[in-house]
């Protein structure tokens, strides 16, 4: 099965994936946001399949600006759900690939911590809920 994503679909996918890592950076209580960003980005760049190709494309930059975590979440969480809905409809195996890619990235982003903070745990719950809402 061949799937063709529009430029808008690709931007939403990248916003969702990189935005999930950005939400964890925003929720970090350890003062090491660079480690979260680096580990999460490495995991995303290791993606395979259609998801990996889209994440690796050089294209229009993802806008992850927001003055607050709430503004960022208002942009990213719906993008996670929209990407899952699109992929579930057009290519269910790629939906599974996207979901696991994001979950690996958020797990990798937390590897510098012995135990995630309650804030980080709650953000992971919100990201997972957005992935599963589709």
Overall morphology: globular
Cα-atom Rg, whole angstroms?
A: 14 Å
Mean pLDDT: 91
Domain tally: 1
- Determine the fraction of residues in helical runs and give it as a percent range: over 70%
Largest sheet features: none
Q: What's the total number of strands? A: 0
Query: What is the terminal-to-terminal distance?
Result: 21 Å
Helix run count: 6
Quickly give the structural class. mainly alpha
Beta-strand residue fraction: under 5%
Low-confidence stretches: none
**What is the string of SSEs from the N terminus onward?**
HHHHHH
Give a written overview of the molecule.
The chain has 134 residues and is mainly alpha-helical. It has one domain. The chain contains 6 helices and no strands. The protein has helices at 7-27, 33-45, 49-56, 69-90, 92-109, 118-132. α1 (7-27) runs antiparallel to α6 (118-132) and α4 packs parallel to α6 (118-132). The longest helix is centred in the middle third of the chain and has 22 residues, at 69-90. The mean pLDDT is 91.
């Amino acid at each position: 099965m061949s799937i063709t994503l529009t430029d808008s679909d690709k931007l939403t996918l990248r916003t969702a994936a990189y935005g999930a890592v950005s939400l964890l950076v925003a929720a970090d209580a350890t003062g090491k946001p660079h480690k979260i960003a680096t580990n999460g980005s490495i995991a995303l760049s290791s993606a395979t399949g259609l998801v990996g190709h889209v994440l690796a494309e050089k294209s229009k930059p993802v806008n992850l600006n927001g003055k607050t975590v709430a503004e960022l979440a208002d942009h990213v969480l719906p993008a996670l759900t929209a990407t899952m809905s699109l992929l579930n409809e057009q290519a269910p195996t790629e939906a599974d690939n996207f979901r696991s890619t994001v979950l690996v990235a958020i797990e990798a982003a937390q590897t510098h911590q012995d135990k995630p903070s309650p804030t980080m745990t709650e953000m992971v719950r919100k990201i997972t809920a957005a992935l599963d809402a589709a």
